[in-house]
């Protein structure tokens, strides 16, 4: 029985040594697993903060895009106003030119009338022509004033668009 007891004791000691060795191996694996879990958690936290930063940058970029689109819309609108003002200026210039030509023709016609000391041949016609000249000159002045205002508005729109 003693030999059997010693053999059993030796077998148990060998089994205990094998279990201790296995326990040490499991502890090393456990430490490695804990380190890996810690590393993965740290990496996940880093990636989460990177994702949040990327989302923040995306939000800022989208806001800038919206602002740029709004600015582009406003500039297109101002450009349309400027084109309208330019068209009005061209129309006013054309009208001023036409009125100036008509005033010049009427003055020429008035100057061509005889200025003799005798009775005028057609006083009502001369008075009508002079009244027409005065009316056209007033209309010309009024048109030039409006033209000046339109030009000023056009310039302010252009300056604003440039700024």
UniProtKB/TrEMBL annotation:
One of its GO terms (molecular function) is actin binding. Residues 9-85, 126-153 form a coiled coil. The keyword Transferase does not apply. Keywords: Coiled coil, Repeat. It comes from the Eukaryota. This is ANR24 protein. It comes from Horornis vulcanius. The gene is Ankrd24.
